[in-house]
Amino acid sequence: MADVIYFDNNATTRVAPPVYEAMAPYLKELYGNPSSIHGFGTRVGRALDRARKQVAGLLGADDEVEVMFTSCGSEGDNTAIRGMLEGSPDKRHFITTSVEHPAVHGLGQHLEKKGYRVTWLGVDDEGRLDLDELRDSLTDDTALVSIMYANNETGVVFPVQEAGEIVKARGIPFHVDAVQVPGKIALDVKTGPIDLLTISAHKFHGPKGVGALYVRRGIALRPFIIGGHQERNRRAGTENVAGIVGMGEAAELTARDIPAEREQLTTLRDQLERALLSACPGARVNGGRAERLPNTLNIAFEYLEGESILVLLDEFGICASTGSACTAGLVEPSHVLRAMKVPPRWLQGAVRFSLSRYNTREEVAFAADKIPGIIGRLRGLSALGRVGAKEGQPDHAS
Ligand code: PLP
Q1: Is 81 in the same domain as 190?
Q2: What is the pLDDT of residues 199-222, one digit of tens each?
Q3: Alpha helix (H) ranges present in the chain?
Q4: Does any domain span residue 314?
Q5: Which pTM does this prediction carry?
Q6: What is the pLDDT of residues 30-40, one digit of tens each?
Q7: Which of 3, 69, 196, 356 is the most exposed, having the fewest neighbouring CB atoms within 10 Å of its CB?
Q8: Residue at 94 is within a domain
C-alpha cells in the first residue's frame, strides 16, 4: 500500500500516467505558438483541435466549436456568469443555490454588492433542490440561472435536466457547474437544456491550471479576458498547450472508462460508509438519502470537530477534508451543511472522503480499521472537555 491513502479526490486528483505522457512533448520540443502561421506552430494548433474534440466527446457535444478552454473551473464559472450578465445589462436578477462552490457563491455575493438581486435557492435537509422554488423565482428580469450539477462537499446531485427545462421554458439562459461530474456521471449536453457548462481537468486525472466551458452554439457570451483572438475571440491569451493536451487525454480516458469506474467507486464508497456507520456510534451521513456522486462520503461525528479528525487521519497517511473554513482562528461550519440545517451537534464534525479510480479495497479496509480508534480517542479527549461542548455550542477554543 502507498504511504499516502488519498481520499481527497474532490479537491484534486492524481494525473493519469497516459495524460502525463501526452503532455510531455509540449513541454519539451513542441513549444510553438498555436497561433503562428509557420508549420511548427500549426502543428501545435492541431494538438489543440484534437483536445477540443476529445473534450467535446466527454461532454456529449456535437460540435467542438462549442468548447472553449479556460484556466480552471473558477474561471469557467466566472466567465459564464459574468459574460452572460454583461450581455443583458438591462436584466438585474440572478438565480443560484445556497450550496454552490465558492466560485459561484462568492461571485453571487459580489453581484449583490454591485446591485444585482440574487435569489439563493434553498435545499432540504438532505441537500436536495426544490424545483417549485426555482419555478416560482423566475421573472422577466432574470438574466441567468446557474446551478451546480453535483455538490463538492456532499456529492448530492441536482436534477439539472428538469431544472433546465423549467428555466428554458421561460427563455432564460442556463449555466451548470459540472466540475465534480466527469468520471462519475456521463454528460450529454447535446439534447438537454444546458446552455453553458463548466468543467476542470484536475478533477478527473488531468493537470491543474486548465478547464473548459461548453457554450451552446448561438449563445452570445461576452469575453471575460479581452485582448487577442484566441478561443474564437472568447478568451484572449496564448493557450496552455500542454495543459490542454493533457485535458484532452484525460477526457478521452474518462469517457471511455465511466461505467466501470462508477461501479468501482460506488462499491468502495459504500464499503467505507457501512464500516464507519456500524463502528462509530453517533455518526451520520450528510445527504445520505439523496442521489449522490458514487465517490463521495460526507460523514459527521457527533460533538467532534472535523479538523481534529483530519489531524489524526494524517498520522496514518489518510488524506480527507472538511468543508469548513478557518477564519480568524475560528472554524466556520460549511455553508453547505448550514443550508441543509444539519443539527448543531453534527455541524462541526463532518469529514469528506472522496475516492478515485486509483483507490483500492485494501486502502478502504485500512481506513475503516483505523477511523473508529481515532473517533474513540477524540471522544476520550472530549469527555475531558477538550473537544465538543454543550449541544449546539461547539467549543471553538479547544
Ligand atoms: N466548482 C466546483 C463544484 C468545484 O468543486 C470546484 C473545485 O473544487 C470549482 C468549481 C473550482 O474549480 P477549480 O479549482 O478548477 O477552479
Answers
A1: yes
A2: 999 999 999 999 999 999 999 999
A3: 17-27, 39-59, 73-87, 102-113, 131-137, 160-169, 230-233, 241-279, 306-315, 335-339, 344-347, 361-383
A4: yes
A5: 0.94
A6: 999 999 999 99
A7: 3
A8: yes
